[in-house]
Amino acid sequence: MNTILVNEPLHAPPEQASRRKVNVASPERALSALGGGALLLYGLGRRWPGRLALFALGGALVTRGATGRCHVYGLLGVDTARREAARPLFAHDAAQPAALASGARGAIRVQRSVTIGRPREEVYHFLRDLSNLPRFMEKLKEVHELGAGRYRFFLAGALGRLVEREVALVEDIANSRIAWRETARDRGACAGEVTLATSSFGRGTEVKVVLEVDPPSGLLGRVVTALRGGGPRAALRGDLRRLRQLLETGETATAAP
Questions:
Q1: Which strands form 205-213's sheet, in the order they lie side by side?
Q2: How are beta strands 190-198 and 177-182 bridged, if at all?
Q3: C-alpha span between 149 and 127 (Å, rounded)
């Protein structure tokens, strides 16, 4: 499976934001440039009103190939430029080299980090108790332990319905790393890992979260989610902020009356 990587901390420095503008892989850039050039040449030999649209499309493709930037990819949270560089989330499983059980090529890989002003051991024990997750994860409503490192997650779905997902812990290193993935092999599966490290000068714990998500509706689902302002990136950002508030103050901020 090829994953799509979005490596984005909560507050990214300007130089990192500049590098993230390149989100198209080299083969796609070449095809875009060739296709755009062909459209421009084809339009030159035609005299019909629609050739302006042809020129615009050809120019956009050439620009996409030359710069490596795609605004549509940016809207959908897709970054194929880092696809080959993204390591499998659970590489220890030789039979299943990638995290997602579905093996879909369109999986989105999102990474964010946050610094929490609490000791690493405290953060680890809080996250290791998966029953705490619904306290700061907006979409996750309930967690039921099934035994043998397996859990059933109940997530908020469309029209107020709950969606059930069974997940399994695949790695648990005390005070350092927790990794899990769904046991299902269908679309919509996801996997994740949390790594903990003492922050600079011992001022708390740096929490890094990586999620791999296989959108259940493919490209169309990504478009709808992006237009609604949601998606894995936005959800993870909000979840981490609520986690920091919860561990540092004992409560999370809410706009509800």
A1: 3-7, 107-116, 205-213, 190-198, 177-182, 162-173, 150-156, 140-147
A2: antiparallel
A3: 14
Q: Give the three-class secondary structure for 101.
A: coil
Give the integer Cα–Cα distance in Å for 42 and 44. Answer: 6
Q: How far is residue 188's CA from residue 157's CA, in Å, rounded to a whole number?
A: 12
Integer Cα distance of 107 and 202 in angstroms: 35
Whether 249 shows a pLDDT value over 70: the answer reads yes
82 within 8 A of 5, measured Cβ to Cβ = yes
For the chain, helix, strand, coil in percent to 5 are 40, 25, 35
**Secondary element (H or E) of residue 114:** strand 107-116
Specify the pairing of strand 3-7 against strand 107-116. parallel
**φ/ψ bin of 204: left (φ > 0), alpha (ψ from -120 to 50), beta (otherwise):** left
The pLDDT of 138-157, averaged and rounded, is 92
- Encode pLDDT of 173-217 as tens digits: 999 999 999 987 665 678 899 999 999 877 899 999 998 877 655
